Each structure stands twice: as C-alpha cells, then as structure tokens.
Amino acid sequence: MAQQLLEKLFQNNPHLNEIQRDRIAETLQYLEQHKISLLFEELLSQLIFEMSNQPRKTLLDALKNYKNQQFFDTSDYEVIFEHFDTFNDKTVKINSIRQGLQIIGITKSEEEINQKYQSILKKGFLNKNEFIDIMKNEYTQR
Fold first, then answer.
1. Do 101 and 107 touch, CB atoms closer than 8 A?
2. Which domain of life, per UniProt (predicted)?
3. Which of 19, 71, 95, 105 is deepest in the core (most CB within 10 A)?
4. Which candidate, 87, 97, 89, places its Cα nearest to that of 130?
5. Which of 98, 96, 126, 93 is nearest to 110 (CA)?
6. Which residue has the higher pLDDT, 20 or 79?
C-alpha cells in the first residue's frame, strides 16, 4: 500500500529534486528488501479474518508471534479452494492461484506464477491438493 503510493508519487511528480527522488528510491528499496508491504498485508488479512473486538491487541499479538506464526493452515486453504470450485468438480481454474494468493496477502504477477508452476499449469486446472500445496509453498516463502 505505502509502497504503491510512494511509487506513484515518485513517478508522477516532476517537481521533486534529486535528493527527494533518491530518498524515495531508498525508501522503496527498503520496503521491498524487508517485505514490509507483505507484513502489513498479512496483518490486515489476519485482522479481517478474526474480526476481533480488540484490533490493536490482535495486531500486537500477531507482531509478537510473527516469526513463529502461520496465519493460515490447511483448512483455510481448503475454504479458499472451495470458494473457487464453483462447479463442485474438485478442480479450479489456473487464475485461482493468483486470486488465492491475494487472499492470503501475497501478490504475484501472472508471469511469475506461469514460470514457477509451468508443469502444473499445462493441463489448465488444479486439483485441491495442488492448489493447497501451492498456497502453502508460497506462504512459507513469503
């Protein structure tokens, strides 16, 4: 979110001087290097999922346990799969990978997904186990 805002500011503002542009570039690099946007997306996803009456406490607890905590488990990935399995035929279309990843706070381009999962994508659909394995793998590598 913040990264996208800074990128827009950086790209669309002809009034920035060289020092300001350098500072924005450093900030963008920092955010990407430390995966800050991903952290915020995961925190927001957890907050929305839990709908806690104490959102600040929920966020603080999540940050304290961030390294050891998996916000999502197999049952969560199964629910996401079932959401995309509109014909109830135990398969989903390929675009469900990117959409599923967005739900768990991971943004990947179509090109990245196509390159990484080329062998699975050839058949044009995913079964439940393939979908869950991809979700787990991408979440673990975040």
1. yes
2. Eukaryota
3. 105
4. 97
5. 98
6. 79
Instruction: Kindly report the number of other CB atoms within 10 A of residue 58's CB atom.
Output: 17
Question: Could you give the count of Cα atoms lying within 13 Å of 89 in the half-sphere of its Cβ?
Answer: 7
DSSP 86: T
Q: Which two tokens stand for residue 79?
A: 């629910």
pLDDT tens per residue, range 22-35: 888 888 888 887 77
- Report the distance separating Cα 15 and Cα 130, nearest Å: 49
The 8-class DSSP code of residue 108 comes to -
CA distance 69 to 67: 6
Backbone angles phi, psi at 122, to 5 degrees: -60, -35
Confidence grade of residue 103 (pLDDT, cut at 50, 70, 90) = confident
Q: CA-CA distance, 29 to 126, in Å (whole number)?
A: 35
- Looking at residue 109, the DSSP 8-state letter turns out to be -
Q: How many helices (H) and strands (E) does the chain have?
A: 9, 2
